[in-house]
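Notebook, p. 212. Picked up where the previous page left off. The plan for this session was modest: take the two constructs that came back from the sequencing core last week, fold each one, and keep the raw output in the notebook itself so nobody has to go hunting through shared drives later. Recording the first one now, exactly as returned: residue sequence, then the structure token string.
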Amino acid sequence: MKTNKPTAKPKKPSAPRPKLLPVSEETRRWSALLESELLTWPGVVAKRMFGFRALYRGKRIFAALPSSRGFGPDASVLLKFDPMPPALLQRAKSENRIHGNTPGKGWFSFTLNSDADLHNALEWLNRCYESARKGRSR
């Protein structure tokens, strides 16, 4: 007696996962400073996520700070836009500290090189925070 078993569909090859590397003490310090400021903003909550501190405005994630792991050797804050407004995208393209699609669609990274970069990082984080307010919930 033969049974009609459904045939399994072949899986699409997935993109390779980015390597998460340990972050420096300096990067942890910068992240802690940024997180302490962001947690004073209305509706912001931080949760652990794969060696990062994911920052939410309500139910929407808007950023991630490296806690114990990071993408690559540099100190990068992850910014989430869904989508990034066109005028802001043009500005991001001219900013050498911002890189796109890290780790995926809608994500950008802002590289920190010194304490002086924290102010600019907060400006970009504020844009993500405002974008999370305007966007649709998922």
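Okay, moving on. Second construct, recorded in the same format:
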Amino acid sequence: MPTQDKAEIIRTLFAAYLSNDRKAVEDVFADDFYFTSPYDDKIDKATYFARCWRVTDWIERHELERILVEGDEAFVTYRCVAKGGKSFRNTEFFSFEGDKIKRIDVYFGATYQNGAFVRQSES
């Protein structure tokens, strides 16, 4: 699959998150998809949707800053802006199997409220 197509899959995924289109998200994930974040260690697709899927009406927009694709892997850095003025920047690592996303690892960045840094609790 060409690099541009994988970048487009990532753009489509973020658009589906923003529009709460769970089916579109499910369709782009491989059956053996897994997800890792500072809160989750290699959880499967069913656990991801049970634990992580939620209504995104609090998000104003995603700003996809960088998508770097190499072979069957990609990194995306984005800024998420909430309707209440809070924003954060994350980087995600994607692994593909054909045209499906097999794995996502999320790395959390700093959080801001109306442009000012907000220290997160260490718990």
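Notes on construct two before I forget. The first strand starts at residue 29 and ends at 36.
Flagging for discussion at group meeting.
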